[in-house]
Specification:
alpha/beta, Quinone Oxidoreductase, Chain A, domain 1, Rossmann fold, 2 domains, 7-stranded mixed β-sheet, 6-stranded parallel β-sheet, 12 helices, 29% helix
C-alpha cells in the first residue's frame, strides 16, 4: 500500500510499504477514506534529523473497517469510523476519567509498530476503546467535519473546557490555524460573550468571525498585547487559548490574560522552559491544557456535526490525493493552505 514517510526536514515521500494486518485479537484494520496534515506535523518538517528508514506520518484519519480481531465487539466490517489521534483501551482508570491520552495501555500513532494515518490503511490497536462508529457513508459530505473530531475540533474544545469557558468569561484565542479557529467555535458553543482572535491571515480570521470571534487583532508581540488590553479596558480576558506552541505566543498569552484568569495551552510546545514564577503566581493565573483526549469529546461534539448545526470541516481549504502529500506539507508550510485534506 501507499503511505507517507518523512526522511528529514522538508523531505516527505509517499512510498510503498507492506499492507497492515490484524496482529492481535483486539486490533481492527481500517481502510483510510480521508486523512490530513496537522500543524504539529510541520514541526518535524522543519527540524527532523535525516533518517535513512524514515518515519511514518499522520495521526488524523477516518475510514472503513475492513477486518477485526476475534475480541473486537464495538465495531465490525463495513463500519465507518473516526480514529482519535491517540489509541486507548477505554477501560483503565485514566480512560474512565476522560484522559485517554494517558491510557495505561494505549499510545500514539507513528510509535513502535503502530503506523500513521497518512496512508491507505492502518492497523488500529485496542479498537473497542479507540474507534467510534458513525452512521454515515464514506461519500458523505460530512466526512471532512467528522475528520476534525479525530484531533483539531477536539483539541480546540479541550482548550475551552480546561479553561472553564462559560457565558461569564471573555476569551482570547492566539493563533489562526485550524486548532485556534476551532477553539473559537468551541468557546462560542460554551457561551463566551466576547472572543478576541489574534491572527493576521484575513481569510482565516474571516472564518474565525463566522465561527464566533467578536474581534480580530492582527498585531503581534507588545502591539498585539496593547490592542487586546485596549479592547478590554486594560484588564485582558478571563481565558487565553494558546494554539501555536511557540514562545512568543506564550508570552502574548501572559500579556493578555486577566488577573485570576486561565491560560490554556494546546499548541505543541516548541520550548522546554517558560516563565511560570511570579508571572503566574502574582496575578493568580492558572496554566492548563495539554494533549487533548479527543476520544473523550467525540460523543459530545458528534450530534451537532451530524445534524449540520456546526461545520468544523470548513477548516479544510485544500484537498489533494495521498500521493500529493509532499505538496500538502509545502502548501501548509508556505501558509498557502490552512489545512489540507488527503484522499487515500
Amino acid at each position: 500500500m501507499r503511505a507517507t514517510y518523512m526522511y528529514g526536514a522538508g523531505d516527505v515521500r509517499v512510498i510503498d510499504v507492506p499492507d497492515p494486518v490484524v496482529q492481535h485479537p483486539t486490533d481492527a484494520l481500517v481502510r483510510v477514506v480521508r486523512s490530513c496534515v496537522c500543524g504539529s506535523d510541520l514541526h518535524p518538517y522543519h527540524n527532523m534529523p535525516v533518517s535513512e528508514q524514515g518515519e511514518s506520518m499522520g495521526h488524523e484519519f477516518v475510514g472503513v473497517v475492513e477486518d477485526v480481531g476475534s475480541e473486537v465487539r464495538t465495531v465490525g466490517k463495513g463500519d465507518f469510523v473516526i480514529a482519535p489521534f491517540a489509541w486507548s483501551d477505554g477501560t483503565c482508570d485514566f480512560c474512565r476519567e476522560g484522559l485517554q491520552t494517558s491510557c495505561r495501555h494505549g499510545g500514539f500513532w507513528n510509535a513502535g509498530d503502530v503506523r500513521g494515518g497518512q496512508a491507505e490503511a492502518v492497523r488500529v490497536p485496542l479498537a473497542d476503546g479507540t474507534l467510534v462508529p458513525v452512521p454515515v457513508e464514506e461519500k458523505s459530505p460530512l466526512v471532512p467535519s467528522l475528520l476534525t473530531l479525530s484531533d483539531v475540533y477536539g483539541t480546540g474544545y479541550h482548550a475551552a473546557v480546561k479553561a472553564r469557558v462559560t457565558a461569564d468569561t471573555t476569551v482570547t484565542v492566539i493563533g489562526d490555524g485550524a486548532v485556534g479557529l476551532l477553539g473559537v467555535l468551541s468557546a462560542r458553543q460554551l457561551g463566551a460573550p466576547r472572543i478576541i482572535l489574534m491572527g493576521r491571515h484575513k481569510e482565516r480570521t474571516d472564518l474565525g468571525r463566522e465561527f464566533g470571534a467578536t474581534d480580530v487583532v492582527a498585531e503581534r508581540g507588545a502591539e498585539g498585547v496593547a490592542a487586546v488590553r485596549e479592547l478590554t479596558r486594560g484588564d485582558g480576558t478571563h481565558v487565553v487559548i494558546e494554539a501555536v506552541g511557540h514562545m512568543p505566543a506564550y508570552e502574548q498569552a501572559l500579556g493578555v490574560v486577566r488577573p485570576g484568569g486561565v491560560i490554556s495551552r494546546v499548541g505543541l510546545p516548541q520550548y522546554n522552559n517558560a516563565p511560570v514564577g511570579w508571572d503566574l503566581f502574582g496575578p493568580n493565573i492558572t496554566l492548563t491544557g495539554g494533549p487533548a483526549p479527543a476520544r473523550a469529546y467525540i460523543e459530545t461534539l458528534l450530534p451537532a456535526v451530524l445534524d449540520g448545526t456546526v461545520d468544523p470541516g470548513r477548516v479544510f481549504d485544500t484537498e489533494l490525493s495521498l500521493d500529493a502529500a509532499p505538496d500538502a506539507y509545502r502548501a501548509m508550510d508556505d501558509r498557502r493552505s490552512l489545512k489540507v485534506l488527503l484522499r487515500a
